[in-house]
Amino acid sequence: MVESEIIGKLNNILAQEFEVEVSAIKPEGNIKDTLMLNSLDAVDMIAVIEYEFGIKIPSAEYAKMKIFSQLYDYLITHLN
Length: 80
Hints:
- The protein is built from 5 helices and no strands.
- By secondary structure, it is mainly α.
- Helix 1 (about 5-20) packs across helix 3 (about 40-55).
- The longest helix is centred in the first third of the chain and has 16 residues, at about 5-20.
């Protein structure tokens, strides 16, 4: 899967799951603010990503991710 496919798939999944417009998800956007996540929602988000992409994201890694570009970079690195 190429970088643009990963980003597009992730954005579509997140937009559908958290009922936001895909256009609201920008690389520099804050994940929690954009998706209006509380701590339980954040756990759900990681579970959805892990299921859809078939990878495991350790909580220590997710804790470092504040903006979407950090999440993109993690997925791109671990899927390729």
